[in-house]
Amino acid sequence: MPSDTARFTPRGPVDVDRPDDLDAFWNEALAYLERTAPAAAFVLDETMSGDGVDVFAVAYSSAGGVRVGAWYTRPEGAAPGADLPGILLIPGYISDPTVAKSWSLRGYAVLSVAPRGKVRARDQIDPGYPGLLVDGANDARSATYLGFYLDVVRGLDLLADRDEVDPTRIGVHGSSQGGGLAVATAALRPDLVRCISAGAPYLCGIMSSVRLTLTYPYQEIREYLHIHPEQRAALETAYSYLDVLNISERVACPAQVYIGLGDDVCPPETGFALVERLPHVEQFLTYQGCAHGAGLPWVNEEIDAFLERHLSPSPAAAREHDLIGGNA
């Protein structure tokens, strides 16, 4: 069961400076994305399809012409005009995208994205894990993570363009990296996202997290600065553009946020900071004694109910609860 937030004592503040030209930066980034046509290919995988679900291997072009991948699943034989609710799934930092057949058995069309650096998206850019967080990060415009954000936004656009998907009923879901980028995607495409479910959100209060935890991925920044201490000011400036807290106020849809109060990867203080900034938090779930799993497996029922409330899938077989989770 979720715990009482009053029992949590923050270990320190979560601060992030907001650049004066933040909105201009993101407008420029989205315009840069639009310069590359998606050239999307959805190829039916007959060996993985069946038992009520069609599975497609997806490839598309994103910012800078980088070719990335995804898996797309839908109820078997869904025709144009089916008006299926959609879910964009975003993987964790070291995780790769799932083939979300169990979600599609419930009536959802699901795009599970593999941004640059993930399996099936490593041909052109592969910063490694660890590595992604600090790759090119002494300037926000050269940071590999900027392209990573835009890869996810492009995936949302493709999902909304599918003939069988209702573009007014799309949710975004993920945990850890997926949680932070769910918020970022809704902030950058507020007109397309109906709801977000974000677990253990990463990339919130980035530099504060370096002070609050000693674990990866934030440890990458500490190690980088140990070697390049002269880069601290440049990193702090770059991350202020990429920090999800700074764009979270642009989110226009209902949000569900869930965290573990014992999380040593994404400090719970940053989850509280996010909830304070999000305009429409419908549900904030905290779990005493839970770490980066953020309440798994108990929180699954809450996630399912939240998405069903806002996306209204067709009645179908229950989704298999993810007892392991994809939070890393």
From TrEMBL:
Pfam family, one: AXE1
Binding site for substrate: Y93
InterPro entries: AB_hydrolase_fold, AXE1_dom, CE7
GO MF: carboxylic ester hydrolase activity
One GO biological process term: polysaccharide metabolic process
Coiled coil segments of this chain: none
Catalytic center residues: S176, D263, H292
Residue stretches making up the Acetyl xylan esterase domain: 18-309
Domain of life of the native organism: Bacteria
PANTHER family hit by this protein: CEPHALOSPORIN-C DEACETYLASE
Record's protein name: Acetyl xylan esterase domain-containing protein
Organism: Labedella phragmitis
Organism taxonomic ancestry: Bacteria, Bacillati, Actinomycetota, Actinomycetes, Micrococcales
